[in-house]
């Protein structure tokens, strides 16, 4: 049995609903073969989302972590390849922070690659007739901040170097129905355990 941690973000900006949160809630009651699934809701706050996920990784010791974020400008499931070392916010986060071209870690590398099987995952999702693609830009908001921060944490830790991490951006409804997004996340888990 593999332990898998799936995260989603709370609503932010002018939205009262975050589809990533709704998917995580829906998954919390699912049974996935050979998977001990743990879910976590993250704050849409620069740095705090990283700290919350790091604490959950320490507590749960998962073998795979998949984070979900909502991206209204997407029309397919976007499996993110990397997080870049920059925070830049068009809108403030949920605590009013609005960084402007700030490095996440001034001593860190320009980017970190996620460690799930990106191409295989995208192809598996497409085989289920769900629109999906590889994305090379997670933006510069809290989602990217989380990817970079968690990858930095995992790469820096001998204790956690075997944990796989991936991030999926999902579009607003009704681009892809909730049940298909949930299925895409389940496919992602199966493709990477």
List the helices and strands and how they pair.
Layout: E1 2-9, H1 19-27, E2 35-42, H2 48-60, E3 64-70, E4 77-80, E5 82-84, E6 111-113, H3 118-127, E7 132-135, H4 142-156, E8 164-170, H5 178-192
Parallel strand pairs: 1-2, 1-3, 3-8, 4-7
Antiparallel strand pairs: 4-8, 5-6
Quick take:
With 193 residues, the chain is α/β, with parallel strands linked by helices. The chain has five helices and eight strands, in the order βαβαββββαβαβα.
Q: Which strand-content bin applies to the residues? A: 15-25%
Low-confidence stretches: none
CATH architecture assignment: 3-Layer(aba) Sandwich
- Strand arrangement across the biggest beta sheet: 2-1-3-8-4-7
Structural summary, described in words:
- By secondary structure, the chain is of the alpha/beta class.
- The chain has a single domain, classed as Aminopeptidase.
- It is 32% helix and 23% strand.
- It is built from five helices and eight strands, in the order βαβαββββαβαβα.
- The strands form two sheets. A six-stranded mixed sheet has the order 2-1-3-8-4-7, sandwiched between helices.
- Strand 1, helix 1 and strand 2 (35-42) form a beta-alpha-beta unit.
């Amino acid at each position: 049995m593999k332990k898998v941690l799936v995260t989603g973000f709370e609503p932010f900006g002018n939205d009262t609903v975050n589809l990533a949160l709704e998917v995580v809630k829906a998954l919390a009651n699912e049974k996935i073969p050979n998977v001990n699934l743990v879910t976590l809701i993250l704050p849409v706050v620069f740095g705090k989302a990283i700290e919350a996920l790091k604490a959950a990784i320490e507590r749960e010791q998962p073998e795979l972590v998949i984070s979900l974020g909502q991206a209204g400008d997407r029309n397919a499931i976007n499996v993110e390849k990397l997080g870049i070392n920059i925070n830049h916010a068009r809108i403030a986060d949920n605590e009013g922070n609005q960084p402007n071209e700030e490095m996440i870690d001034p001593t860190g590398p320009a980017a970190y690659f996620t460690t799930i099987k990106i191409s295989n995952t995208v192809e598996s999702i497409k085989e289920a007739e769900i629109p999906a693609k590889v994305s090379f830009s997670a933006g510069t908001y809290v989602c990217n901040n989380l990817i970079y921060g968690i990858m930095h944490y995992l790469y820096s830790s001998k204790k956690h170097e075997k944990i796989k991490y991936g991030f999926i951006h999902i579009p607003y409804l009704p681009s892809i129905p909730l049940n298909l997004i949930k299925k895409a996340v389940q496919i992602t888990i199966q493709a990477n355990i």
